[in-house]
Amino acid sequence: MKLKTLLMSAAATMTLAPAAMAERGADGQVNVIMWQAPSTMNLYLSSGTKDIIAASMALEPLASFTPDGTLAPRLATELPSLENGGISEDLKTVTWKLKEGIKWSDGTDLTADDVVFTANYCMHPEGGCAQLAKFEGVESVEAVDPLTVKVTFTEPHPDPFSAFVGGQSPILQKAQFEQCIGAAAPTCTEQNFNPIGTGPFRVVEFKTNDVITFEANPEYREADKPSFATLTMKGGGDAAAAARSVLETGEFDYAWNTQLAPEVLAGMEANGKGHVQAAFGSLVERLHINLTDPSSSLPEGERSTTQHPHPFLTDAAVRKALSMAIDRELLTEIGYGQAGKPTCNLVPAPAAWASDNTECLTQDIEGAKALLDEAGWVPGGDGVREKDGVRLSIVYQTSVNAVRQDFQALIKQWWSEIGVETELKTVDASVFFGSDAGSPDTLQKFYADVEMYANNFEGNNPEPYLAKNTCDKAPGPDNQWQGENTSRFCDPAYDELVAELGKTVDLEARGKLGQQMNDLITKDSNAIIPLVYRGTASAVSDTLGGVELNAWDTELWNVADWYRKTE
């Protein structure tokens, strides 16, 4: 299936609008399937996209990114700017004005104190906040009055739209979460599973890694929305089963992340029950290299921590060789077709931030062998390279998904050709992308040598996304394994670039700094090995209207506008 066809389908859907809005809940039930089942409704305790999407049903930010990457106010009356005084002349403060009359779903008022509390919650040093990079450079957040919030940065901040902006940084209710701050955060099961929100829906029942039942929020600020009285979000299964449930059986109305080969989706669409929407944002499928030792011989609490460097992946030559052996063109062809592009970049867009890093696009098996030879890694009797008694033997993990398992099989073969032994490990997606600090199989815990996944950043400012890779954000027991720097990459030069970016105003200079940071963590270090720049694709029933796929924010960002089409 051609991406152009997918996008045309999406555009056609966007032009359809109901003749007139009915009363709230008039369209009854809507069913959403998330084959990676949500494990929490508190996205500050999870970096998983599935959990961010689930939370967006109830929790909202001050402003959202639209499908074209621009900003629009949500809980705020307007976007702060230099012109309206919301952004100070020295670029060190941004002042938000909340809309009057917004209620939490329990009927109480949203106030500036809730916004201040959210900042304190995420920035608490013992909290292990999964979205901490959103608050990079924030010095303080204060309530000027009940409807006014002032954010102060340590340095002039040219783009202040990070904290409280987008689906990854919504507002929590202080009254509900004030006993859940710091180390207590993950212990508050009731709050984390059933957050009180301002969004179009509220939680009725949450069954972790299974199903969430929502009902229309009776306090939602738009009296005629949402059109649906109830929403069921079912988890589990796989991408193929999810896509079939919309495109073939019609059991569900929306299937998130139909990560399937193009010809498979085309065959399902032929049934005439639904279509696939797609959009390109910043989603990159990539490998993360564990720079720490995940060996089970280490005591629990020390595995995959900076206390113990990896026995061979700390060798830059090994990491480089792993990248050189991969044929990204073939991976893209079999996995995504026209809905993917081979890439060497962690940040593929916007254009001003995208490096001209293209060296990795040419597979070089012989070059990889020569590099390992030069570094002293020689083939043993079984063909596996070794040095000083250490074998190049890798555990390579990812979530259960047909495309990812195809990628694993191919990459294992290429690595075997250069003398690297690979054991493949697959983890149920709900667990892999979950937030359970006690699980050994989360992507943050990273009890493997290499892992593969994809995520993205919101809007057109990659700064917070790149800031995730600073030394202080490595997951570990001290932050309840919620750090965002999963490779445990630590380079003072990188951290200095993050600090410089935070105080750089000139747009061209910001893009250049971003390119340097991208190159440091990819081609210069190969701590992250990008594979494919992916389009976001999801299946939508032909009976469901108002859906507008958004690759720059949480995918279900406009669920309040969904409605049931009539004949």
Automatic annotation (TrEMBL):
UniProt keywords, alphabetically: Signal, Transport
Name the record gives this protein: Peptide/nickel transport system substrate-binding protein
PANTHER family in the cross-refs: MONOACYL PHOSPHATIDYLINOSITOL TETRAMANNOSIDE-BINDING PROTEIN LPQW-RELATED, PERIPLASMIC BINDING COMPONENT OF ABC TRANSPORTER
Localization of this protein: Periplasm
Cellular component per GO, a single term: ATP-binding cassette (ABC) transporter complex
Source organism of this protein record: Paracoccus homiensis
Domain Solute-binding protein family stretches: 71-465
Lyase found in the keyword field: no
Signal peptide: 1-22
Gene Ontology MF terms: peptide transmembrane transporter activity
Stated family: Belongs to the bacterial solute-binding protein 5 family.
GO biological process: peptide transport
Classification via InterPro entries: Peptide/Ni-bd (IPR030678), SBP_5 (IPR039424), SBP_5_dom (IPR000914)
